[in-house]
User: What shape does this take?
Amino acid sequence: MNTTWGKLYGVGVGPGDPRLLTLLAIDVLQTVDVVAIPKSKLERESVAWDIAKVHCPKEVRLIELELPMTSDQQILAKAWQDGAQTLLGELKQGKSVAFITLGDPSLYSTYSYLLNILQEELPPECIATVPGITAMAAAAAKINLPLATGDEPLLILPSTDDVGDYLNFPNLVLMKVSRRLPEMLTLLEERGRKAVLLTRLGQPGEAIRWEPKALDFGSEKVDYLSLLLVKKDLLGRKNSESDRRN
Assistant: This one.
């Protein structure tokens, strides 16, 4: 029996401000049958949905997918498989589905893992990935700081064990820093590198900290939606920003 598939959209909803969604993303959200919302735990609120919901019709149907934040590969593999099967169930009925994700779907997004599974089942024309503004692009824009210029390299890293091997790069974006922030800041201080910490961009609780120190975060819980920008000329940029505000 031939299946008339619906279409899956992986939609990047940007870093936090609903005004930063692309026109294409808004068009998709306003026309799909179903919006799929990934959650680390089902009882938690979804930041991605908080961003996207202002662009969605009130009658759009929602499905929640539990995609836990864990390093246990068996748990992750099962969650990805379960999530993919839930989406396939909708698509087999001819429904169009938007899977929403923070930032861009192609950069450190759970969407990528589901996509790998779904591409084995769906015809290529039934999948569309809608790019979104990344947190690092929004962070750089927020403080008027180029991520890189001329022939300079730009390196994007999650806060893994080997971060210290790359800290001499002139332009660095350190993502997923919340669990290891004091350690990351200690490494930067030892190398004499300056950084700016940006948290919850475009959302309630947004914060910008120039040259944060490891000692500042003894017992403070750092929000998951945080990143560090590291540049060789950061001190001059900080002073320029201060002059503009004064």
About this structure: The beta strands are 8-12, 34-39, 61-66, 97-101, 127-130, 155-158, 171-175, 195-199, 207-210, 226-231. Residues 136-245 form a domain with the Methyltransferase, Cobalt-precorrin-4 Transmethylase; Domain 2 fold (CATH 3.30.950.10). The two ends are 69 Å apart (CA to CA).
